[in-house]
């Protein structure tokens, strides 16, 4: 149990375009989902926390107009990278916390490799 | 300040040997977790230890927590080639917003 999927697993897009990444909890409902970014051989950096039905809370330095997060249901959160630039190329990972668990009990998706050309 | 820094940054051992990885942190915590990440993949939760616990076991894993030294260690006994991965500690800082802070990770290579 407690499986989280991400789609797509890899995406290549051209500079200036937007790309959407989906994060789904497959066998549980998630009140809270988290979006992280990971650079090569680096740690995970929290970008934002999203709660179902409310606006996401962004970490300092993360542009909310560039990284749009929507958590429309208890099983789906989306991250849209708008007007992507090469510096947005990264590995994006989501996690989800089951509604009957503490927020720090997070299950992670497999990640999405974004390459902006 | 960097919360959750692991050492060593890279570790190479022979299959069958034990692997010990350390994590230090700077602020008081509620709990600390260890995760494993295979190359290009998501994170897999290994074990959680609460601030009032000193040691936990799970299979071949043994985690210790020393809150006075603000450090934790992860021991993998009888390592296998399949243990090759990056390992991260993540802390839930006491009094902070609900977010995990990850260390930089340790790359473990287990040679067959």
Spell out the blueprint of helices and strands.
The complex is a heterodimer of chains A (117) and B (112).
Chain A: E1 4-7, E2 10-13, E3 19-25, E4 30-38, E5 44-51, E6 57-58, E7 67-73, E8 76-81, E9 90-98, E10 107-108, E11 112-116
Parallel strand pairs in A: 2-11
Antiparallel strand pairs in A: 1-3, 3-8, 4-5, 4-9, 5-6, 7-8, 9-10, 9-11
Chain B: E1 5-7, E2 10-14, E3 19-24, E4 29-37, E5 43-50, E6 55-58, E7 61-66, E8 71-76, E9 85-93, E10 100-102, E11 106-111
Parallel strand pairs in B: 2-11
Antiparallel strand pairs in B: 1-3, 3-8, 4-5, 4-9, 6-7, 7-8, 9-10, 9-11
Q: Key terms for this structure?
A:
heterodimer, A: about 120 residues, mainly beta, 4-stranded antiparallel β-sheet, 11 strands, about 55% strand, globular, B: about 110 residues, 6-stranded mixed β-sheet, 5-stranded antiparallel β-sheet
Separation, N- and C-terminal Cα atoms of chain A: 37 Å
Run of helices and strands of chain B: EEEEEEEEEEE
Task: Please give the oligomerization state of what you see.
Answer: heterodimer
Average of pLDDT of chain A: 93
What is the β-strand count of chain B? Answer: 11
| Gyration radius of chain B, rounded | 13 Å
Number of strands of chain A: 11
Please explain how this structure is put together.
- The complex is a heterodimer of chains A (117) and B (112).
- Chain A is 0% helix and 54% strand.
- Chain A starts with a strand and ends with a strand.
- The relative contact order of chain B is 0.35.
- Classes of the chains: A mainly beta (117), B mainly beta (112).
- At the A-B interface, strand 5, strand 9 and strand 10 of A face strand 4, strand 5 and strand 10 of B.
